[in-house]
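Incident review: delayed structure delivery

Summary: a single-chain prediction request sat in the queue longer than the usual turnaround. Root cause was a stuck worker, restarted by the on-call engineer. No data loss occurred. The affected request and its eventual output are reproduced below so the record is complete for anyone auditing the incident later.

Affected input:
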Amino acid sequence: MIEKDLKIIIYNIIPPSVKSKKVITDRIYNSFCEIIFPDEIYDIGDSHNFVINLKLNIGIGNNIKPRYIILNWKKLLVDNIDSILIYMKNKHFEFLIPLAAITIWNNFYSNLKFNIDEKHSVVILTMWKNCDQNYTIDELILPNLVNNQLNIYEKPNMKKNVLKRILNELRKMGCIERRETGKLWLREKEKLVLKY
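Output delivered after worker restart:
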């Protein structure tokens, strides 16, 4: 079942030292992933539809229905991150929340399989924490913002060439887009079609 697979991805990202791993896994999953049937479709705003071919045995007999996965960055990183952090009991693990989401995104959405690490996570988290009401952020201010966030986690600063590579990978993965204004736009939600 797809829900179980998604939860395993999240669970495996959280280090063993973190207590309440199952609760945190469920909260991240419930904040980022929603699986719906086509008859439950609703408008998810400025998004795109992508078909994912999975061989899953969902349904009974010949009555197998396609499902959609809604991946919702805003719900996870803006609306619910604080309630998840309560269970982590350590602000230094905050970057694990978007790391789980990027890993899911990379496995289920992106045809490009990048080696995702905590640097990607810190960049996307920093962008969400500092974006404007249109979910855009000026790329020129990112190096200082990212390094300030890394300092909170007591991690070394990120070099500009590393940030540039990560932004390029996030763009290729479809997490962000470069707008005509020169700003980077954060994709709020994505609807993935599971096709059998």
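Verification: Residues 2-195 form one domain.
Action items: add queue-age alerting; document worker restart procedure.
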